[in-house]
Amino acid sequence: MTPEDLDRLLSTPSEHEHLEFKAAHGGFNRDKVGDYCSARYNEGGGRLLLGVSDKAPRRVVGTTAFDGTLQQVKHELLQLIGIRIDVEEIEHPDGRVLVFTAPPRLRGHALSCRGRYWMRSGESLVAMTDEQLRKLLDLTLDFSAEICGPAELSDLDPVAIQRFRSERRRHRPGLQLSESDRQLLEDAELLVDGRVTFAALILLANERGLKRHLGNAEIIFEYRNDEAAIEYAERRDITRGFLAVMDDIWALINLWNTEHQYQDGLFRRSVRAFNESAVREALLNAVSHRDYRNGGSVFIKQFPDRLSITSPGGFPEGISAENLLYRQSPRNRRLATALQHCGLVERSGQGADRMFAASLREGKLLPDYSTSDAYHVALDLYGQVRRPAFVRFIERLANESGRPLGLEDLLVLDAVDRGQPVAPALRESAAAHGSRSDREASPEPVHPRGPFLCRL
């Protein structure tokens, strides 16, 4: 770095996680340099400059820190934090400046100094909490892509492998697939140089392999005849790879899947409490987005009119119950990619759209994530038909428009029907249905079930 480069840095509007200025007139503690450099590393790399005022307008004030001992300091920093820190000495016209440059963090790695993982908070350094450190590693490490050292090909279920093969062929009919199971899984990166990934275990493990190497990937099912019941009427501990059991899980749920009947004009209609498409999407989400570092298992609790699916770990970074329809951040990319190859999920989506659409089309309550927290994602699917008039209305609207209603259409209509404001993300969709908005603005009386339904 030249003095001219330094002058340009001084014009930076404010300090941030990649840039730190310290005056250090009379010196600076070596351990504190280690703290700052480890924090820069953890936050993506950056620089610590000694000999520059940290208040704007910044100017070079010069420092005597580590004068004549730079080589020793480099070695001591390597011993202290375990990585090489580049140190430059700049003779600026206004004084001596030291620049410590920390490289960007390696994938799946965080750096400690003196027993703590440091991060910037305002103008200070603070130690990360366990939860902050876990989130930092979650952002960079794909657990499903890691190799399970002791696992072998014999830990995988031939039935599940055949299901993977047939689903890939169904999804991509022209795709040439290897006749060898090993090569098939290598091509899908479920095996890497013959070694078994955790994604392979999650999808394909036999019972012995899953219990031995990833026991928390089991799925536990319980059925109760009543919400207040303590004892379950049925319980299954499902300990095989997901592709081997996904149809069995649906069959188990469907075994207890009650049929609801409701009046539609002169006719009676019937609908199952739990829609197969919605349930399968919920299961795929629970398996593909859960945190496998957490020792818990996926729990399915079924009641006559509610299906609860709870998966360990909170939402992935940046995802919440409020934005999951509009943002995606797969926690286990290798696993999501394998499911994408099978046509079971789209890696760009989380399947929540299908669950919401199915619930709206059947007049049920929306899927509910409200009891989720930082440690688990909890989803409730409801089985009762609450709004048969709304079902009749959207069916008529689809027939009149000559096209099926998409999720955004359904969410807009649902909001208006319930007398709720349309979410900002949906306003564009609402504008596209101007004629219906005009109806809403009509001075006609509003039906108790919503402004649209009074016209049925």
From TrEMBL:
Residue ranges of the region described as Disordered: 425-450
Domain Schlafen AlbA-2: 15-128
Pfam families membership: HATPase_c_4 (PF13749), SLFN_AlbA_2 (PF04326)
Protein name in the entry: DNA binding domain-containing protein
